[in-house]
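R.M. (postdoc): so does anyone remember the format we settled on? I'll just put the structure tokens first.
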């Protein structure tokens, strides 16, 4: 494999001149540029990203930890992050933790050993990381997206789940429903607890009773919505409407109703959360609370780049505003 020295020798210039031509960081005459570029082409020379990163102490690479899920919310956020990285001249290395705390720690070690310039963390593990997990890498800039399995003093970007849960429930109340159930995610995840709290607040403010069995902690997956909806249908008085903690849960609930010969919204109305890509294409299209996934990705990268340039600045907590998307799943 050709080196920069080989290019310099063939072009009859110094290695620093070759570097200036490649990086465009200093004036080089057109005649010399032609010689260098001709030598590069003849030798099929490719600059070493590793060598450059060691010299400038920057890899132009961002690492991201994310949990795999059937819920496309995660992949849609990752797509927004990758697009924002590309637009800013960075590459993204993605590590899937598979919901396993041991794998998460291993993946974090791998990313940090590869000297990523910064790290984005968006995981849904229910266990907490050991407190010393990050102690060996205290200077690596990090941004937490939505939720993470450890307490940190890093920048955090999250959805206002309390407001979103209240907004969803108030919408159902405004459409005349009184018997409203809620299926939320695991109780040890902040978004799940906050969305449930928003539901409870809206019900209380409206003076509506929440019958026993109407609140279900599940997971944020299709199967959780399916089994939880079946559980609600077995109650002596099933609900008239459902606030699903995310769209995956709502889709699972659709299937449970279909298998029982019931329909949305004729028998039970449903509102979801996230506004994933498939939501408008369900039958009927899903009314839901929109999370600005592209904005989340852009904000995460912008926050991380700012943290990389300003490591001493105070950690920030940024809150995204949810928005109601009205479709056809609520009668």
């Amino acid at each position: 494999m050709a080196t920069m020295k080989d290019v310099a020798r063939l072009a009859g210039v110094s290695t620093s001149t070759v570097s200036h031509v490649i990086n465009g960081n200093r004036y080089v005459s057109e005649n010399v540029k032609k010689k260098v570029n001709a030598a590069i082409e003849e030798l099929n020379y490719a600059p070493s990203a590793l060598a450059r990163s060691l010299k400038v102490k920057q890899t132009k690479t961002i690492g991201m930890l994310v949990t795999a899920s059937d819920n496309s919310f995660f992949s849609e956020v990752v797509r927004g992050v990758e697009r924002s990285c590309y637009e800013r001249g960075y590459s993204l290395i993605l590590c899937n933790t598979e919901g396993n705390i041991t794998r998460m720690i291993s993946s974090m070690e791998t990313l940090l050993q590869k000297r990523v310039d910064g790290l984005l963390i968006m995981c849904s593990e229910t266990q907490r990381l050991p407190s010393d997990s990050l102690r060996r890498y205290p200077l690596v800039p990090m941004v937490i997206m939505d939720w993470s399995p450890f307490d940190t003093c890093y920048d955090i970007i999250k959805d206002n789940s309390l407001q979103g849960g209240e907004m969803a429930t108030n919408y159902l109340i405004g459409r005349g429903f009184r018997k409203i159930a809620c299926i939320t995610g695991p109780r040890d995840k902040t978004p799940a607890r906050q969305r449930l709290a928003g539901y409870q607040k809206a019900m209380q403010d409206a003076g509506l009773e929440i019958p026993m069995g109407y609140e279900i902690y599940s997971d944020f997956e299709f199967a959780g919505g399916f089994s939880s909806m079946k559980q609600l249908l077995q109650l002596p008085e099933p609900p008239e409407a459902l606030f699903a903690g995310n769209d995956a849960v709502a889709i699972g609930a659709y299937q449970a109703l279909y298998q029982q010969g019931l329909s949305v919204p004729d028998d039970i109305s449903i509102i979801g959360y996230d506004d994933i890509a498939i939501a408008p294409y369900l039958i009927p299209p899903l009314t839901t609370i929109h999370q600005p996934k592209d904005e989340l990705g852009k904000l995460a990268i912008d926050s991380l780049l700012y943290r990389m340039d300003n490591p001493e600045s105070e950690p920030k907590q940024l809150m995204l505003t949810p928005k109601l998307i009205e479709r056809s799943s609520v009668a």
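R.M.: ...and that's the designed sequence above, right after the tokens. Also worth knowing: The mean pLDDT is 86. Residues 293-309 form the longest helix (17 residues).
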